[in-house]
Amino acid sequence: MNYTDLYIDGVWKSGTENKRFDVINPADETVITSVASASVDDAKAAINAAQNAFADWAGRTPRERSIVLRKAFDLMMERLDDFAKLIILENGKAYPDAIGEATYAAEFFRWFSEEAVRSDGMITHAPASGARIVVQHKPAGIAVLITPWNYPAAMGTRKIAPALAAGCPVIIKPASETPLTMLALMPLLEEAGVPKGLVNVLPSSQSSAIVDTMLSDSRVRVVSFTGSTEVGRKLLHSAADQVLKPAMELGGNAPLLVLEDANIDTAVQGTMLAKMRNLGEACTAANRIYVHKNIVDEFTKKLTLEMKNLKVGNGFDPDVQIGPLINENTRNKVAGFVVDAISKGAILHTGGKVPEGKGYYYPPTVLSDVPKNSNCVHDEIFGPVAAIQTFENLEAVIKDANDTEYGLVAYVFTENMKLGMSVCERLEYGMVGLNRGLVSDPAAPFGGCKQSGLGREGGHEGMLEFTETQYISAEW
Ligand code: NAD
């Protein structure tokens, strides 16, 4: 736990107000350590540092930026285990999820080291005048990055890597529940060759004040946020004053459709992945599971068996697959969803009971016959609860699947590819998994439509979020 201060201009600082806040281990509710809390003045200092680093970094060749990012990937791959352990400590997730996250996080450095040298522009003749239309992408400027607690490493690297590839300096405000992983990444980035001031980290117990300060500074040009739709909306309002480029990765309410002809074993395995990766604390987690009436009994039986077999416990135990939830509030919310659904007529197949003792544990839970008016149908569960509904009519289930303000990800299971593709195309979602329970991939554009967000991370699109398109009309 060596890195618990603010990281500004390549220097560790205790902050102008000398305030700290505790980071809690969700597995036993003990205080892991305390972390410096950034003030408004610290936020201003970080902007100055970022501005000073900007010209040099933006002026480096794409290849130079690429080499630094590639080195960051290599170093992170060497230290995956250290990062996984830190993620377990502050977030609670089990080792397989933690090592999976650390690897996924590192992959963004590799992917964007490759993208850094592929910032394609365009040159063409204007149809009427014959002048040349020259189009190029320039670094947008300082980017403020705000990340959630559910992926303490990956949600940060998914923003840092494309920003650096594009030539932008960044200031990261990690979630107050999990600031340690992002702080621990800083020495690695220094070693990779990231110059001082280019990446700054500001944990803070006064998120709103420091973020507002940064978003109202005219030198900041991008705000990239991952978190709840509620906070995203507030940030969009703040971003409006300086007309910042917003990238918003917000909440989800993913439907998962198991059609009548689906291979049930494939669908059960896919559902396990879509529901239980990160113990359900994922924006991509399957929230509403719709299964055709002719197969729902067999599907529910098999899914229940798989859920019962999961071992719950401290994430450091190598046999454990399900760690604790992040905090008491989250657990109360999850438990409340289950009580609400059962009170409205849902059937409980396994789980559903808060265990005694320390740690914010909640057991893998399966509910079937979940009524449409249950709270878990409308809100993100964000926990290990599989909520199954039965359907008969394909048209009606597509309508139900789309009947939400969210549009992040959906899943479809069927053996009929023609039908499957047409259902995917009719789902109003930024991403769809077809016979797969996992869509996240650094090489693919991750993001949602409707109130699940704006913009995309990863893929070719990810770097464009940190650039401005410039068009030069030229004669020569
Ligand atoms: P959150 O919105 O409460 O917090 C996210 C971040 O915003 C944290 O760093 C927090 O400190 C900060 N924050 C909170 N209030 C703020 C304010 N007023 N001003 C500035 N910053 C503020 O979300 P969370 O509870 O950390 O994460 C869970 C949510 O994140 C879920 O809704 C989940 O779906 C979403 N999420 C989305 C994606 C995606 O890619 N779409 C990925 C992971 C998580």
Descriptive account of the structure:
- The structure is a single chain.
- This protein is α/β, with parallel strands linked by helices and 476 residues long.
- It has two domains: 6-250 and 452-474, Aldehyde Dehydrogenase, Chain A, domain 1; 254-441, Aldehyde Dehydrogenase, Chain A, domain 2 (3-Layer(aba) Sandwich).
- The protein has 15 helices and 20 strands.
- Helix 2 (62-78) packs antiparallel against helix 5 (154-166) and helix 2 crosses helix 6.
- The longest helix is centred in the N-terminal third of the chain and has 21 residues, at 95-115.
- The model has no long low-confidence stretch (mean pLDDT 97).
- Nicotinamide-adenine-dinucleotide binds at residues 146-150, 155, 173, 175-176, 207-208, 211, 226-228, 231, 234, 249-252, 283, 380, 408, 448, 453.
CATH architectural label of the largest domain? 3-Layer(aba) Sandwich
What is the name of the CATH superfamily of the largest domain?
A: Aldehyde Dehydrogenase, Chain A, domain 1
User: Radius of gyration over alpha carbons?
Assistant: 23 Å
Q: Which ions, cofactors or small ligands are bound in this entry? A: nicotinamide-adenine-dinucleotide
